[in-house]
Amino acid sequence: MSDEDLISVDYEVYGRVQGVFFRKYTQAEGKRLGLVGWVQNTRAGTVQGQLQGPRSKVKEMQEWLTSTGSPKSHIIKAEFKNEKVIDSLEHSSFNIVK
C-alpha cells in the first residue's frame, strides 16, 4: 500500500442508468481499480453508492461514473459528496445492493 490517503465519497448518477447493467459495470470497474464500496438503484431512477480506496483510484472511478458508465447508459450528471479521508476501509468488497 502506498502512503496515499484513503478516501471515502458518496455518489449519485443521473440519466439513463437503470435497466442498462450500470450497477454490474460499476461493480466491475470498482473491483478493477481495487476499490471497495457499494452501488444501488434508487426509486428516483438514479444510481447511488459509496466509493472507498486510495485517492487517485477514487478520482479515476469518479471520472468513469461521470463520463463512461455501462455501454447502454446515458449519463446526464454525477454528483459526489461527503468526501473525507479515512483511516481504514469500511467495506470488504464492492457490492451491488438490491
From TrEMBL:
Active site: R23, N41
One annotated GO molecular function: acylphosphatase activity
Pfam families noted in UniProt: Acylphosphatase
Domain Acylphosphatase-like: 8-98
UniProt entry tagged with the keyword Transport: no
Gene3D superfamilies found in the cross-reference section: 3.30.70.100
EC number(s) from the headed UniProt entry: 3.6.1.7
Key words, A-Z: Hydrolase
Domain of life: Eukaryota
Catalytic reactions of this protein: an acyl phosphate + H2O = a carboxylate + phosphate + H(+)
Broad EC category: hydrolase
InterPro entries assigned: Acylphosphatase, Acylphosphatase-like_dom, Acylphosphatase-like_dom_sf, Acylphosphatase_CS
Family: Belongs to the acylphosphatase family.
Protein known as: Acylphosphatase
Organism: Betta splendens (Siamese fighting fish)
Taxon lineage: Eukaryota, Metazoa, Chordata, Craniata, Vertebrata
